[in-house]
Known about the structure:
Layout: E1 3-7, H1 13-26, H2 34-42, E2 51-57, E3 62-70, E4 79-86, H3 95-109, E5 114-120, H4 123-131, E6 135-146, E7 163-167, H5 176-187, H6 200-208, E8 219-223, E9 226-235, E10 240-248, H7 257-271, E11 276-282, H8 286-295, E12 298-309
Parallel strand pairs: 4-5, 10-11
Antiparallel strand pairs: 1-2, 2-3, 3-4, 5-12, 6-11, 6-12, 7-8, 8-9, 9-10
Amino acid sequence: MTVLLRDLRIDDPSDADSVARVRRAALPFLITTAPGVTFEAAAAHPARQLRVLVAEDSDGLVIGTAQVGISHDSPEPGQSYVNAYVDPAHRGRGAGSLLLRGAEEHLARHGAVDVYAWVLDEPYSRAFAERHGYRASRCAHFLRLDLAAAALPALPEPLPQGVELLPGSAFAADPRPLFLADAEATSDEPGDVAIALDDYEDWLARTWDNPTLDKELTTVVLVGGEVAAFTAAQTDGATRYGSAMTGTLRAFRGRGLAKLAKTDSLRRARAAGYTEAFTGNDAGNAPMLAVNDWFGYEICATETRFTRKLRTK
């Protein structure tokens, strides 16, 4: 059957539903919702040149999708990404190749030099990437916690002197302290492409206003009234909770504040009815892997970052 390529119909909620369905089928370890798909396309910075590509069969069934864009927040120009997802029930019909070709053509038109793609670390997906000229780079793990049954640690009573826990919603009037904390933590994250969070308005538009960010279940640790650590929570509004980012500012590391933030957030998520918790860690991020192992998270899948050059500089 013929497979057709097009862009997401941003004004059609059923199209976002279809894209979310495919992403969940291909990568069930992410918090994916239809409102999140629509928001991603609508809130993208113009310099990102974002496209959400859709592959559908001749009957109009969406069987694949891809996120494609320029890493405009990298200090090194020409960095780009494509993350393609094909419903496992519809593999082998050419949707993946069509999405990748469309993505690379788009990126080349906008000056991309290097393109990066996360690929599920299993034989079919790795072979697809290698067949299209990509080479393996670093790995990252998806981790899952049975939140309903987990023996979560208790919060210390009382909290250490000068330490306070607040939900992210407490910063609704002025989220800038969380932006600054996120920027510092992100700059220390291991990765192939350096990211510089230095655009507050873009962060507000893409991160703070994202409908999957659960500000009530996000936990911020203050020390002496200053933001010291945080864990940002994503939820699907039903049963699934995800740790989008956990970070401790450099001046406060080594004091167990990341554990404190995650303990508070996980306990409140369970009380709110969430039964599964997911997170992701770079395979080289030993400190966060140790923290998540302490909570009882288990690796449920691994991704490998693949890359290839679209053109020489």
